[in-house]
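Lab notebook: predicted structure, single chain.

Context: the supervisor wants predicted structures on file for every construct in the current expression panel, including those that have not yet been purified. This is the next one on the list. No modifications to the sequence; it matches the entry in the shared construct table.
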Amino acid sequence: MKKILSLFVVGLLCSSFILSTAPDAGRRQTYYYFGCAMEQPAKGQPSRRLQLLYTDLYSTTGGEGDLKRLTALFAGHVNKVCASGSGCMSELKTYTDAKEAEEKQSEIVSRFERTGKYDVKRIEYNFK
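Prediction complete. Output recorded below exactly as produced.
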């Protein structure tokens, strides 16, 4: 009986340790984000300037599931407005710090503008 009770206590302690150290997909946190999409060059098409599309900065309080939903919505929108027949690669850039999100957005936009290969365009999109 003592062995069974000991095993039960050890099992309980281990399971509570695993639960307390496992990443919590349902944890709510404030995220700062913007959408970014890069046009993919079409094979066999003459070269031209490609598009880099990006949105304003937004914030939301939620979990990973909320971010996945926003990512899917943005990807669907980008595929509708993308000028290329070969589509656009889209991504939701997420950060837990507002200043970092603003700096990264500025860095990405500047980097693509400097190449001279992209028409960088801010698009209106409501992440609702």
